[in-house]
Every structure is written in structure tokens, then in C-alpha cells.
Amino acid sequence: MPRGESSDGARRMINIVALSKTFGSGATAFTALTDINITIRENEFFTLLGPSGCGKTTLLRSIAGFVDPSSGSLTIHGDDILSKPPYARPVNTVFQNYALFPHMTVAENIGFGLEMLDRPKSEIRSVVGEMLELVQMTEMADRMTSQISGGQQQRVALARALAPKPEVLLLDEPLSALDFKLRKEMQIELKRLQSETGITFVFVTHDQEEALTMSDRIAVMNKGRILQVGGPKDIYDHPAERFVADFIGDTNFVTAEIQSLEGDTALVRLPSGRQIAARSAPDGAVSGPVTIAVRPEHATLEAQGALLDGLLKNIVYFGTDTHYHVMTQDGSTFVIRRQNQPDAAEDHKVGEQVGISFNPGVAQVLRD
Amino acid sequence: MPNGVRTARRRWLLLTPALVILLFAATGPLLIVLVYSFLTPGDYGGVVWTFSTDAWFNVVVERDFFDDTLSFADAHLSIFWRSVKLSLVTTLVAFIVGFPTAYFIATRPRETRDMWMLLIMVPFWTNLLIRTFAVMEIIRNEGVINTGLIQLGIIDAPIQMLFTEFAVTLGMVYVYLPLMVLPIYASMERMDFSLIEAGYDLYASRWRILRKVIFPLVKPGVVAGSILVFVPALGAYVTPRVLGGGKQLMLGNLIELQFGQGRNWPLGAALSISLLAIVMVALFVYVRSAGTQEGRHD
Lengths: 368, 298
Ligand SMILES: Nc1ncnc2c1ncn2[C@@H]1O[C@H](COP(=O)(O)OP(=O)(O)OP(=O)(O)O)[C@@H](O)[C@H]1O
Ligand SMILES: [Mg+2]
Prior knowledge:
With 368 residues, chain A is α+β, with helices and mostly antiparallel strands. Chain A is 23% helix and 35% strand.
């Protein structure tokens, strides 16, 4: 296998192996990253997703060179970069707070990296022009950074990081400070920039929707660990752990028992006594009691005598869809989401006995 | 009454105490000094109320006591020149020492920064004379440095440091250093340190970070610090007197001399006004040049 190529043929960009980071020592020691293993491919839009304080920034800063990992290895194109200072790494960062130089104009900010690389003035001028066009900021080239709006600052930060044409662009929650509408616009713009430039993006966010819509692959993190890596659909449909299922989208958790296991299909027995095929978790339990996860939109409301039975406690109308809250036999609430049709009459009443059903293979057995 | 007029009036009302103090404590004495510079010296100090421009004349020109010939007041001019030179050197050295000091403190953990600042400020709260004599104790021929070097066998005879320009500069740097550190530290503490990371990320070396990112951002602090050191250094008289031993007179000493032994108050007053003029011109030039570089894009 040639260097830098993974088993599936895609070129490897970043390879992180057994990376850990402990801040401080003794009684105040805090382990922010534990045994991180990821491979990020070339031209990939790779997202680190997780709640606040889970170590996303620490991992990103390890790649950028601002955090010195306690152990593990980190290579870019096969080169060990941990021994290199930030200015010798082929990566650029879009900082969470943009960190634009307030004493420079928009154009000077964008040209800073090239200037530090001692590129000729003419080249700097033309690249800056290109970048200004790319982020649609040409008219504001000579403004000071304090004289442009938040969204514009964000675009300048992006252009500044892109101008030296790094191999990898690191983005630390670059959209979190923007309002909803602008954020949506910038999400699309970021995707466009990524495909136009062909640069590998490592994107940090704690917004699951943002991660799902933008990423080629997502690494879900919690408490300094990577819980699952996969494509958005993979992660959404088949969360490996309760935390992942809970953090991304809404989920119903049902206790069940594995009856038999064949490949990645497990036959599980539900509390109602009925059995159904579910997808098993890699490295998960092979027998005994487990928790399975079912997405609200993957289940349907039926007459009594379905997979699960219960009492319809509540109907919540959301415009695009309606949520049915069903209290099952064991007292837990199961939510079913049904897309609304124009002018369809509501055919269920609160207080009636109902059944819940879902297709074989829809339920996911969780690892814990 | 229109609203605008009322708020304007209220603003003046709020300013009144400050204006009164300024009028009596700053402008008043200044006017008195100006008036005195155009009077005739009294025999035992003080002034005689006769108009005269002699004092101003004497600032630059000397009349020989015996034959009334006129010559350049070399003594005055060399003192002017020395004062400006030593003050500039003091400011420069204070900057070279103060800038890294401020950077060091600003990069300490938040909890310990105040402690470091306190260490910088404590000498500043100590009596000026005591501090100056402390410097003297260190550099005089029988002082710590010379005795130490002789005992170590590095030198045979003490190095003459006291009563030299070096001694005066050293003393002034020591005395005024906090005034340089404080404003630089203040602007550094306000600086967003993620800008330094951004610089590193964009391939800037340490030296270039310092020149292209840190320095432009803390420049207001450097300007303020330089003014705060240069101005009092120009008028200093305790330090040059003690450490210069009367051989390295500065403007402050010259002025003090006229009001004391010289018994020539008008000349002292004229010299004071000259000092003020030098300061104003220097400040004007300095702030202008510092400002144009910064305000390039505004
Ligand atoms: N320099 C440091 N010293 C000690 N602990 C630190 C340091 N930097 C980060 N941590 C801790 O490491 C953990 C992870 O921090 P990190 O900034 O990586 O979180 P994050 O996932 O980026 O969170 P957020 O979404 O809030 O930005 C946090 O608990 C934080 O307190
Ligand atoms: Mg973060």
C-alpha cells in the first residue's frame, strides 16, 4: 500500500494515532483528550461534533500546533508535525473569534500570510484580489476590520486563512457568532469554497444540524473521546451509543433483549414480548438486555396490538409535522413524528389506546 | 428652553470643578511665572516690579560681568542639550527595559499579574531621595559593584561611575521605569493574545510577530509611556544633582539654581517657560509622527 493511502483507496491527509492531552499535573491534572484515533482524507469536509468542553478546540489546536499533546502521533501526508512550530505546519486556522488584526485593512489581513512567506508583492496583490472576490468582499478591501459586520469579518477570516493555500483548513466554530439567517448563508458558502478550493476542511461545531448538513464525515466527541466516526446519514441512522443518539436528533430509547445475533443484525425482544430485527452496534453486547434507539420519524402510529402499545398522552402540532407522545407499558414516553399532509384531518384523540410500529432494521442496538 | 441647550449647560456645570482647579492650580501659577520672567531680579531673591527682557536675553546670551561684552550662554545651551539628550536616552533605555518587562507580566497567569505589577510599583511609592541614594550606594567607588569586582579580583581600582552621565541616566531610568511599564502593560493586557496565535498560524516568526502584530497594537501604550518618562526626565533635578554631583547639571538644576543661590528669579522663570516650550514642541512632533503612521487608513 503506497504511503498515505488508506485501505479504502482514498488519500490520507491527517492521521492521528493514540493522541492524548492532559493539562496540568498532580491534583489539578485534567485529561482533555483520551486516545484519539482518526484518519482525515484528502479534500474531505471533516467535522468534530460534541458538546461544550468535550475537547474539540483542544484537538483542533493540537493539529494547528498551539497545544502540545501529551502522547500519540499526528502526521500530515505522512510527515510527523508534532515537532514543528505552528508557522511550519501546512495548516491555517479560522479562529472562533476570527482574530483579525485590528491595525490592518481587510486586504492587508488577507495578504498577511503570504507576506510572512516572503512572496513577491505582485503575487500577494493578485492572490488577495482573488480571495476578495471569492468571499465577495472586493468593495471592502480598504476598510479597517472594525468597520465591517460580523458576517463580513468571518469571510475575511476565511479568506485570510485560505490565501496561503494551506493543505488543511481548521475552522473552530466559525459560524457560532452569526445570526440564524447569515449562518445558513455561510454554511452554503463554506461548502462552495471547500469544493472550489479542494482544501481539506476540519470543522468544529457543537451544532448537530450544522454538522449533518455540511460534513462528508463526522466525528462525535464526548468527554475527550471520539465515540463514533461516520457519514452524516450513518451517524444519524445508526448511532453507536446512547450519547450519540441523544446528541444528534431526537430519539426514543426502548429497553430490549437480544435473542440472537447474525452479522450486524440482532433479533431483539421488546417489552411487549414481540420480536423484531435491529442493527447491532460494532463491539456491542451480543446477548442479554440492551437499549435500542428508534428515531421518531421512523415509527408509525397504529391500532393497538402493534410492536409496542400505549396510551396517547399528547398531540403537538409543529406545522411541518405532528408529534404524538405515547406512554408505553413501562411508563416511558415514546415520541412519533408524522409529516403533515395538506388539510388532513387529525384521526387520533388524546387518551386513546394506540400501538407503535417500526420496520425491521430501523432500530439500532446501542453499545451501552 | 431647547433640550440641546439644557444638556450643553449641564455639561458645563459638571465641568466646573475641574475648570476651577485647572485655573487656580495650573494656569494661575503659569501666568505668574510668565509675568516674573519679564521683571527685574531683586537683590536678595524675589522680583522688583520693573519691566525687563533681560531674563529672556540671558537665557541664550551672556553679558560679561566686567566689560559688558556679549557672548553665547554656552553653559545654558550645553545644559539644555544635555537635558534633552539624557532624557531621550533615558526614555529609550526605559522602553528597551520596560517593553519586555510589560510583556513578561502580561503573559503571566492572571492571578499573579497584580503581584508582578506591585513589585514594579513599590519602588515608585518610595521617596525619590531614598531611591536615588540607593542607586548611589550601589555605584559609588566604595559601593556594592566596585567592592564586589575588586574583591573578586576582576579590577584593581574602582570604576568611576558616580557623578557621570551614566550615573544620571541609570538613576533616571530606575526612577521613571514604572511610568514606562505601566501604560505598555495596560495596552498589552487589553491586547487579544489570539492575534499572536493568528500570526504564528500565518507563518510569522517570533520577531515578525513582535514587529507586525504586538508592537502596532501596544503603540498607544508606548507613546504614553515615552511621554510619561521624557517629560519628567527633562525637568528632573534631584537625580542629576545627587548622582551627577553638580557636574552633570540638567535644566531642573539650572532653574533651581536661579531661584536659590543665583537669586535671579526672572531668569529662573524664563528658563522654566523655555523648558515648557521644549516639552510642548517635542510632544507635538512626537505625537504627530506617531499618529500619522497609525492613522494611515482612517
Ligand atoms: N489550557 C488549559 N488548561 C486546563 N484545562 C484546559 C485548558 N484548555 C482547555 N481545558 C479544558 O479541556 C476541556 C476541553 O476544552 P476545549 O476548549 O477543547 O472544549 P471545546 O469542546 O472546544 O468546548 P467549546 O464547545 O465550549 O468550545 C475543557 O474542560 C477545558 O476546561
Ligand atoms: Mg471550543
